[in-house]
């Protein structure tokens, strides 16, 4: 599996080594504490930082007879490190101190590709930073040294580093990518990492990274915490808080008193996003996460237009939770999110998609024609004999065909269904999540799931 491969790259000698990057303006030495965790892309990012004027796409090293060998991938990097360890061992056996591993960046003519993570490297020699005493100091005046801590900073994207993530089981698979449970070694916490393959230019990668920046600023108990994102080769990994209850789409019919508390959190989460001028754009049960502490949080909101567009190029279809005006290709705003709240909660209450003619088998993307009934027909209504008047009214209001007739953010918070359950009682959701997880476990044990 792609991501697990990442985790298992280079299980070899873990002894620290010194890499000397040979640049036209001099050498830069970097101590790498744990070369077994080094990967091609991160090394390339560090090289591009010291040679920002060139388009470096690969680098070379010299074999024992002086032939240059090109490194363009993780596999080739692994081969280079393996060769270097042999050389080091031979030098030691001959009573010599090992030379640094010399690499020669291969630069194209056009400037342009830059360090996409905006990492800064101080290219001036700084004796105070010199921590590479384990190697002979044979450097010229032009030589530069980097402490291992500094190299680590260079090789990470400032927040979270691909090399520090240990992937565990797969949590689910959506239209855009695959979500894994993972452990972040430095942060000492469990994460959910969404890995999305994207064949896009470095320019677009940069744009996505900068569009995702706003996620660091999101700070709400009703929004999933974002820990960072990075590109490795042609895939982006987005790291967020792990929710041990998973998403609401996998729960069976949810009782109204539990749904009420969940709705309060969802409305609060959306109100928060709207206050930041962010539309969620993808409200649906699989993007509402719960945990055993009774917290409910929204995820997968569309802060990066480029990311949404790039995924849309690969996955064709229209989202069944979209408001009629979106399905028709009209302009839309906050009210479109409100429709999606209505249809999602109706589905969660009924345990079936409210338009029986729409069969959502796998995922929520459908051919546009199939969704035409959402545009043409009167919206469905919850059966009044099974649900409270307040709940039925809430759903009916959210699913008004005319966007302006749907409740605005303040009206949503003030709706009697929401005020009734806005009691801060997380126990109710917590106990329900724990019970459902317990039921699932015992069914699995009996081989029923
Ligand atoms: P789409 O790709 O259209 O958003 P989706 O929401 O079903 O569809 P993903 O977002 O890829 O797909 O998520 C897949 C599954 O991974 C979710 O349904 C959920 O069960 C699980 N998941 C996602 N994020 C987390 C998280 N932070 N904690 C725990 N489980 C998660
Ligand atoms: Mg999702």
UniProtKB/TrEMBL annotation:
Transferase keyword on record: yes
Domain PB1: 18-108
Keyword Transferase: yes
Coiled-coil boundaries: none
CDD domains: PKc_MKK5 (cd06619)
Binding site for ATP: 194
EC number of the protein: 2.7.12.2
Cofactors that this protein relies on: Mg(2+)
Domain of life assignment: Eukaryota
Residue ranges occupied by any Protein kinase domain in the UniProt entry: 165-418
Enzyme kind, highest EC tier: transferase
A molecular-function term among this protein's GO annotations: ATP binding
Similarity field: Belongs to the protein kinase superfamily. STE Ser/Thr protein kinase family. MAP kinase kinase subfamily.
Subunit organization: Interacts with PARD6A, MAP3K3 and MAPK7. Forms a complex with SQSTM1 and PRKCZ or PRKCI.
Protein name: Dual specificity mitogen-activated protein kinase kinase 5
Source organism (scientific name): Solea senegalensis (Senegalese sole)
